[in-house]
Amino acid sequence: MTTPLQGVRVLVTGGSRGIGRAISLALAAAGAKVVFGYYGDDEAAAATLKALRMHDASAFAVEADVSQEAQVVAMAGQAIEGLGGLDVVVNNAGILHEAGLLETSADAFDAVTGVNLRGTFLVGREAIRHMTRHGGGRVINIASDLGYLGRARNSAYCASKAGIGALTRTWAREFAPHILVNAVAPGPVDTDMLGADVMSEAQREKESDIPLGRIGRPEEVAAMVRFLAGPEATFITGQTYGVNGGSSMI
Ligand SMILES: NC(=O)c1ccc[n+]([C@@H]2O[C@H](COP(=O)([O-])OP(=O)(O)OC[C@H]3O[C@@H](n4cnc5c(N)ncnc54)[C@H](O)[C@@H]3O)[C@@H](O)[C@H]2O)c1
Asked: For ligand 1, what atom is nearest to the CA of residue 18?
């Protein structure tokens, strides 16, 4: 097995399950030293940590709500101390709340944008604070194709994901050339987030429009993140890459 990320120090948020779990495992399998954050799902976090330690015995996890500034500062500090530095941060933690605009309370809007957008801002800021003092790094934000497509009954989610694209381009300009900042925008991917409780039957049916004829697997998103974190992605910044089976083509 090749290990193009040998010794690269990585923090992945939302690493306990789904896409973040696949990213953590893919990066560790490529030789990276991985710390992941999670919130509230201890069992999944323990299972992922066990799998991660097959690649990297020193891997560890930190529970922190990414919408809370003090918790993010503490998580970033623990990750940087435990890893001995930080080369790559993957802002993956996210939540989805499906409701029509007229049924969306201000609190629900704040909860979704708080995790997805404010969380990306807070974690990105702490990572970049460290990277600017230590020679640079990579920031990889997980957006969504819904950030540019929009979707009925997903105001907060779509707005938060569009905002992540804007943060990506802003940071890419502000911190060039030493910090490369990119985003990955998945289409529908087979995780808990797409469970029946958050996505209506009608919307699931629409997924059959995907040219490649299926929804994605978390590992397919992780492969793009691994590339963007790796030694070949040296002339790429400010970009958002779709991993979506052709569900949107821009
Ligand atoms: N699954 C999809 O179809 C899809 C499509 C496009 C984009 N995405 C994005 O990919 C990312 C991962 O999604 P997923 O499908 O794996 O979701 P998931 O629900 O399976 O996992 C979410 C992860 O985020 C963490 N998390 C939730 N709230 C948190 C908080 N307040 N603080 C810190 N961590 C928190 C959870 O612990 C978990 O590890 C999200 O940003 C999501 O918006 C997913």
From this structure: 16
- Report d(CA 247, CA 215) in Å as an integer: 9
Pocket test for ligand 1, best of 193, 199, 221 (most atoms within 8 A of CB): 193
Region 31-44: mean pLDDT is 97
pLDDT tens across 85-95, in order?
999 999 999 99
19 lines ligand 1 (CB under 6 A): yes
Tell whether ligand 1 has an atom less than 6 A from the beta carbon of residue 199: no
- Going by C-beta distance under 8 Å and a sequence separation of 6 or more, which residues neighbour residue 196? 204
What does the mean pLDDT of the chain come to?
A: 95
CA-wise closest residue to 87 among 153, 35, 155, 145: 35
By annotation, the residues acting in catalysis are 157, 161
Residue-wise pLDDT for 162-175, tens only, equals 999 999 999 999 99
pLDDT of residue 198: 54
Q: Whose CA is nearest to atom 32 of ligand 1?
A: 65
Strand 179-186 and strand 88-91: pairing?
Answer: unpaired
| Cβ 144 under 6 angstroms from ligand 1 | yes
Q: At what angle do helices 69-83 and 119-133 cross, to 10 degrees?
A: 40
Mean pLDDT of 149-168: 98
22-40 mean pLDDT? 98
Homologous superfamily of domain range 9-243: NAD(P)-binding Rossmann-like Domain (3.40.50.720)
